[in-house]
Amino acid sequence: MKQLYQFLLVCICLSSLPAQAQNWRPFRPNGDVHAFRNAAADTVLTLRLDSAAVQGTDSVYYFNRIMRRSNSFSWRKSVNNQFGRQLRYNVAQRTYVLFWNGGTTPVGTLDVALVLKPFVPVGTSWTSANTDVGMPTTLLSRGISQIDGVTDSIATFRVGSSLTVVLSKNNGLVSAPQDLRIGSPAPRMLTLARRPDAAGRSYYNPLTLVDLQVGDELGYEFEPVNHSGLPCYRGWLLRRVLSRQITADSIIYTFRQQERTNYFNPPGCFNSGSTMSPVSVIRISASRRTGQWVSSSSILKLNYTTLLAYEYRQEAPIGSAVTMGQPVVTNRVAGLCGTPVKLVQTRLYRNGGTANEYRPGLDMLAWGSATGEAVGVMAQYEHYLTYYQRTVNGTPQTCGNRTEFATLLPVKAARAAATFRLHPNPAPAAATLTLAQPARAATTVRLIDGMGRIVHTQPLPAGQTTATLALQGLATGLYIVEVQAPGEAAQHLRLEHQQ
């Protein structure tokens, strides 16, 4: 409790300092994602500060922990991220320190402390530390530069005889050596890939990962991951968007879902024939700030997409396995019809008697997930996206073959076609809705725009078979007309509004 009280006092002191003292932080302590290039071609490393404490007079912020390779096939948990374990700020000295924890041995521990003093006069020198050896550090200059297209002040430091570190006033660290190798002759330098922001507004933006309209479809094929020759089964799963809702802080989709499974009977398999699941409705939602997803489905979940580069999440039972995020690869095009694959996660399992060593699983344990741009999950464990139809700027785009999915979710399409129709379509000023049967009491018609917003609602009196939808004053584009009768699933048709 005493430590917490001290930390709160430090936060109050920080907030009362002049605005200048609040700038030049190498990393933002509010959970924003920082992204850096040059670890490998087209690869972006992401990291953040995710916890805080007080040590003496220093405010201490810890980086998210990651997995590091121990050899070509194994991984180990590490307290150090790309720039160390923690960021320290000394309020009195207005000094930042990036600290690399090399171990617990008092001498020769490979500890590194990169000391940055952005507030001192240009030309001032001091000492950083590398493996218990002092490294002369100097503020070389201050200037102006473009940071991801935005003008910002920068401070340039020289560490040792030739290493240069650049710090931005408003956007944090711009360039520094990976793993804080400030004593290496030619360290790999990481440079800022984009300005720091909340996860939901960076590479993990849910509006970028899933951008579907009502009526769009996703088709997945699945089979066992560990088979040679004929698998025991092969199946197909179809999802169709029922609704899309976007608010200032969230995005929500509902889907209809159905799957068909064909069983084979090679040696070692025990089922045969074919099964069809009942139609179900699933819901997925995400925070537009954190990017975190929640799903009512047990498969094809997006819950791991916010794992940063090499960040890990413990799996039950704790200690047996972790799920690890891979670095962002900005130009990776390996998905269906060239869809960019943005995010990848891998499951790692503890290696027998080695307490801190983890390896990828084999056969049934070979869990992995890949998320593509706009279509969401493209591959996860046994499931692979092999077909989709999505609406882009009012135009349907189809990729893959729908043949294997033709028998799935047939009822809704037939009922929607028989329930009502719209004419004219496209419509300039108004469209007429015609019902196949007289409306039941409390039937409602809604007009939904391309962002999922309800722009018009009108009731249909019981017994009525037609209604006029006025379109004056609405932007041109694609809309969804929804007819909702009490106790029944909503029916939808596309309506194009033209001038």
What does this structure look like?
- The protein has about 500 residues and is mainly beta.
- It has 3 domains: about 20-195; about 205-405, no CATH class; about 410-495, Sandwich (Immunoglobulin-like).
- Helices cover about 5% and strands about 50% of the residues.
- The chain has 3 helices and 37 strands.
- The chain has helices at about 1-15, 205-210, 410-420, and strands at about 35, 45, 50-55, 60-65, 65-70, 75-80, 85-90, 95-100, 110-115, 125-130, 135-145, 150-160, 165-170, 170-175, 190-195, 215-220, 235-245, 250-265, 275, 280-285, 295, 310-315, 320-325, 330, 340-350, 355-360, 370, 375-380, 385-390, 395-400, 420-425, 430-435, 445-450, 455-460, 465-470, 475-485, 490-495.
- It has a 16-stranded antiparallel sheet that branches. Strands 3-4-7-8-9-10-11-12-13-14-15-1-2-24 form a 14-stranded antiparallel sheet.
- The longest helix has 15 residues, at about 1-15.
- The radius of gyration is 28 Å and the shape is globular.
- Residues about 1-20 and about 410-420 have low confidence and may be disordered.
Describe the structure concisely.
By secondary structure, the chain is mostly beta strands.
